[in-house]
Amino acid sequence: MVKLKTVYVCQQCAAEFPRWSGQCPSCSQWNTLVESVIEKERVGTKAGLAKETQALTEVRTESYPRILTTCQEFNVPLGGGIVPGSVVLLGGDPGIGKSTLMLSILDSLPQGTLSLYCSGEESLSQIKMRADRMGVKGQGIRLVSATDVADIISTLDEVNPAVAIIDSIQTLSDADLTGVPGSVGQVRECASRLITYAKKHHIAIFLIGHVTKEGVVAGPKTLEHMVDTVLYLEGDLVYHYRLLRATKNRFGGLSEIGVFEMTDRGLQEVKNVSNLFLTDQKEHTSGSALTVTIEGTRALMIELQALTVETGFGYPKRTASGFPLTRLQLLIAVLTRRCGARLMEHDVYANVVGGYRVQETGTDLAMCLAVASSLRDTVLPATSVAIGEVSLSGAIRPVSLLENRVKEAIKLGMKTVLVPQGQYDTIKRYQNSIDIRPASTLQEALRSLVSVEG
């Protein structure tokens, strides 16, 4: 006998409640409870069957070569290519270029590789128009417009592609469930069926997902736990570049990034990434300092800018774009207390060129130099780079992957690099290629390039 039951399911955390409320008692989110009808069949208690176990040393592994695309910036976040049988979740803001990226990736697969693009949001003619604009050749790419997960699985059986794109997971539905497409139950069940199919038939499936206003993939958080890899396509719509970042990867390292540039022919990979975040060196002025930051294991050279202006109010203003504001305030305090800089009388504005967002502390020293340079109106050498974390005591602390940073500076033709004293021995072999100046304190580093006394 089947019994119908109505429950209210939170679209954020998938918690179920017998009655509606404005705020979810589990995750404290507002207006996320949606009424759902579930069916419960009364059955007797059934004992489970014991499964056969196997010793870890006796388990045989199956090795499948990765599928390498011609787009190296896409291979890197995946850990070196597409793994057959893997399921990848790709998230990003509306209009950021998710569908455009995946269509170009299908075109970059090795010759003879069959792929399937399944769209629940666009018609086939719309996809073809976009492909023509991007110059996609389309050899080996099959298109289908479907939203029923059973139909999609049947299509996968018939086509048997090596790579499949589902655009998007929030548009799919399972006829056996009563929820609307995009609800927690539908997203979870459709994803589960596609994941099971991918593992069984060794097909790589990419699930494109919508994101919420908080920037996370819409639907239950369990969706990110179910898939093998989670990628986010990030970037400001004002700027032309996009960062493809891996936040979960069972087959590679975390926080690896790929860099793309939005053009009239879609997203194109960027060969020389550091050039995106540097201005013309001929326009080098005071308040500008170069540093090398780390994204995953990749070194990126960026330019930090600072502007100090005498404040017209009793309380000086601090504003930052692309640089953590709390970190800027901390560095200003260190400059004031440890170096005697009169920053309490000045407003300080900080910026990262190109719209890049700094997420690590290895750029502290460069920001301090930029602020000091602006304060004294002194131009720093255009071929100098500063790397190091600044502590509250004014000491310059070690940073991660310093050797990678120094190599990037050498590759881009830099002549001088300031580094933490404690890490000098690890990179001194590069002294013939670049002038390495170790510093143990912020005062010592400032004396090396600029004076802020008085």
Automatic annotation (TrEMBL):
GO molecular-function terms, A-Z: ATP binding; ATP-dependent DNA damage sensor activity; damaged DNA binding; hydrolase activity; zinc ion binding
Gene3D superfamilies for the chain: 3.30.230.10, P-loop containing nucleotide triphosphate hydrolases
Binding site for ATP: G92, D93, P94, G95, I96, G97, K98, S99
GO cellular component: cytosol
Record keywords: ATP-binding, DNA damage, DNA repair, DNA-binding, Hydrolase, Metal-binding, Nucleotide-binding, Stress response, Zinc, Zinc-finger
Sequence motif: RadA KNRFG motif, positions: 248-252
Highest taxon above the source species: Bacteria
Domain RecA family profile: 63-211
Pfam families: AAA_25 (PF13481), ChlI (PF13541), Zn_ribbon_LapB (PF18073)
GO biological process terms held by the UniProt record: recombinational repair
Nucleotide-binding found in the keyword field: yes
SMART domains (alphabetical): AAA
InterPro entries on file: AAA+_ATPase, DNA_repair_RadA, P-loop_NTPase, RecA_ATP-bd, Ribosomal_Su5_D2-typ_SF, Ribsml_uS5_D2-typ_fold_subgr, Rubredoxin_2
Chain positions covered by the region annotation Lon-protease-like: 347-454
Domain comment quoted from the record: The middle region has homology to RecA with ATPase motifs including the RadA KNRFG motif, while the C-terminus is homologous to Lon protease.
Protein family (similarity comment): Belongs to the RecA family. RadA subfamily.
Biological role: Plays a role in repairing double-strand DNA breaks, probably involving stabilizing or processing branched DNA or blocked replication forks. DNA-dependent ATPase involved in processing of recombination intermediates, plays a role in repairing DNA breaks. Stimulates the branch migration of RecA-mediated strand transfer reactions, allowing the 3' invading strand to extend heteroduplex DNA faster. Binds ssDNA in the presence of ADP but not other nucleotides, has ATPase activity that is stimulated by ssDNA and various branched DNA structures, but inhibited by SSB. Does not have RecA's homology-searching function.
Name listed for the protein in its UniProt record: DNA repair protein RadA
Species of provenance: Candidatus Wirthbacteria bacterium CG2_30_54_11
